[in-house]
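Technical note accompanying the year-one report. For the benefit of new consortium partners, we illustrate the data format agreed upon in the data management plan: each record pairs a sequence with a structure-token string. No post-processing was applied to the example shown here.
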Amino acid sequence: MDKKFLNKVVDQIFSETKIDYDYMGGRVFLPYLTGFILFTNYFIVVPSYRSFFWSHCKNVYGLSGEETDYVWVEYNRIIKNIIKNNG
């Protein structure tokens, strides 16, 4: 598993993620979904969204399941930290 490449994938997906703190407490636009999810003061990843994430990583980046798991964990860690600290 090439973590250097996978970290670039995480960075790319994060760069396509938009966080709006002003709308009803906050919302996140995820590049692998159409629309957005709302958050309060922390990011909750709904398990059903994971299948969309998996499809996105496989179709766009050609990642395996193990690679996608790594990207999923890292991406969510970054998002949670950003929201927790309000940017």
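Partners are asked to follow this layout when depositing records. The chain has a mean pLDDT of 78.
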